[in-house]
Write a structure and sequence with these properties.
Layout lengths: L2 H24 L4 E3 L10 E5 L3 E6 L4 E5 L8 H27 L10 H38 L10 E3 L1 H21 L4 H21 L1
Antiparallel strand pairs: 1-2, 1-5, 2-3, 3-4
Length: 210
């Protein structure tokens, strides 16, 4: 795969990861009601996310409520919020920076070495964005697992388990880090310097023989 194709593939993968991360941050299905146990409760399904909690009736009606107070939220929710916001900001800047540094764009063509370094910088931003998403989703999943398995008088069918947004977040983190890695690997700076040096040395050699 050529350098330009590798950059384009990495950019598209990272862009898809950023969009998926945005969807994961907005979705309220970070944890959902567990249907394990003998007495299965199906009348109401509860879902909770970083920004709101929802109750889905068996009739299909869904009611959602935003988290009222920031300070009253649990620490892991506040931490995951911050990580997801940082992840989205890093990915947004990565999208802009990578477009400037990719070979398929016309910006900065007169200096290919600097252009390739900009592409690498965009790749680094995408990798950091993916790491933040991975940290947020994994932290939330760890808390859900701990609360599910700890000894408690709460019936098991009223506890929470992983929601679909967690799996979307893991996929988003994987795509962002994969795309960022491809962008970081597409910088043949040494070869370009060698070509520039070879091109500059040829005229001088010809003049010496004249």
């Amino acid at each position: 795969m050529g350098g330009g194709a590798r950059e384009l593939a990495g950019y598209l993968a990272a862009l898809a990861g950023w969009v998926a991360g945005l969807a994961a941050a907005v979705l309220p299905q970070w944890r959902q009601s567990s249907y394990a146990g003998d007495a299965i409760i199906t009348a109401v399904g509860l879902h909770e996310g970083l920004w709101m909690s929802c109750a889905a009736q068996s009739t299909g009606q869904v009611q959602c409520r935003l988290h009222d107070s920031l300070l009253s939220l649990e620490v892991h929710i506040q931490t995951c919020r911050a990580l997801m916001v940082i992840s989205l900001l890093l990915g947004f800047f990565g999208i802009i920076v990578s477009v400037v540094g990719m070979k398929c764009t016309k910006v900065g063509e007169e200096d290919p070495v600097t252009k390739s370094r900009i592409a690498v910088a965009g790749g680094v931003l995408f990798v950091l964005s993916g790491l933040c998403t991975l940290a947020a989703v994994s932290l939330y999943a760890t808390q859900v697992t701990y609360e599910f398995f700890r000894e408690s008088t709460i019936p098991i069918n009223t506890r929470y388990e992983f929601g679909s947004a967690l799996f979307v977040g893991w996929g988003a983190a994987s795509l962002s880090m994969l795309g960022g890695s491809l962008l970081c690997c597409s910088c043949p700076a040494k070869e370009r310097r060698g070509q520039q040096y070879h091109q500059q040395s040829q005229p001088s050699t010809a003049q010496d023989y004249v």
